[in-house]
Design goal:
By secondary structure, this protein is mostly helical. It is 79% helix and 0% strand. It is built from five helices and no strands. α3 runs antiparallel to α4. It is elongated, with a radius of gyration of 21 Å.
Length: 99
């Protein structure tokens, strides 16, 4: 039980400081034992379903624009969709601080 309290402190401190953490195998086991991993998986399933629904809606909107003869607008929306899918460039914190 004490390991869960310590893990909570570690995670809370990392959240407050906006920093990442590394988990030992014991800490990961503690997360699993609390059901946190199942909660994470459930949240991921929900997020994926919402993402899928949004993509389906975007495709339908683009198809409708094409059918309405609005090719330029359809192309612009399709380009925005592709740009959203591309990975974002990550700037290391060290470089952010020097700006």
């Amino acid at each position: 039980m004490e390991s869960i309290i310590d893990l909570d402190r570690k995670i809370s401190r990392a959240i407050e400081q906006g920093r990442g953490i590394r988990l030992s195998d014991e800490e990961l086991d503690a997360l699993v034992s609390t059901g946190a991993i199942e909660q994470l998986k459930a949240a991921a399933i929900k997020a994926l379903a919402e993402l899928s629904a949004r993509r389906q809606q975007q495709r339908a909107e683009i198809r409708q624009l094409q059918q309405d003869g609005k090719q330029a607008e359809a192309a612009r929306q399709a380009l925005e969709r592709v740009q959203e899918m591309l990975p974002k460039r990550r700037i290391p914190r060290a470089k952010l601080g020097s700006r």
